[in-house]
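Let's sit down with a protein and look at its sequence and fold side by side. Which protein we use is up to you, so please pick one and set it down. Label the sequence line and the structure token line clearly, so we can match residues to local backbone shapes. Go ahead whenever you are ready, and we will take it from there:

***
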Amino acid sequence: MGGAGVRLHSASAEHAPLRRKYGDLDFVVTSKQRGAVQKLFEALGYQGDLRFNTLNGAQRLLYLDAENGRQVDIFVDVMRMCHVLDLRNRLGGVGPSLLPADLLLSKMQIYEINQKDLVDIVALLIDHDVADHDDDAINATYLAKLTAEDWGLYRTLQLNHERARSMVKDMAVPQDIILQRLDALWDRIESASKSLKWKLRARVGDRMNWYELPEEVRQPYQPE
């Protein structure tokens, strides 16, 4: 997952203006795979952060390669960042990275989104159409279902939809395609029937925080 996952799924990320450096690597595994994954990274020469992994290992693991300044984050079953994304039923796709819809969601769920995240969103939208399936496409049905149950997730995606639209206008990219796909996705999200929980939370709106601001886990030697 993360930027490197986008790079594996999107050829547009290979070239300017969407080519960028990746400061660390992010993965997601099932809880059943956790033990095997720990053994794998240790065999590759990575050192587990003992304190962090002891406290958080049921949900997240951190591995470090101090010699080369590399950091690996491993989420277990669920990605808990600005929002909680349960990925247990989304890990059966072909290939080494998450499905396009989940890659997009992992970026668009970030409340304090940055330039790198927006660049990754643009790359995904250039290389993947919006459809009703996961076959090398952004699954709008899946995303609409998630946001119809969770007003907070909906609200963050709404903000980042507008941020992405605004940024694209100043980039040397196929703007028409990107804007069309952004709007097609948002039309599907808006038109989905919302749950009672969603409607009740929508009444509160922005008067109450709907997101978390996760503390970034980064070691002192890790390059920015």
Observations:
- Residues 94-207 form one domain.
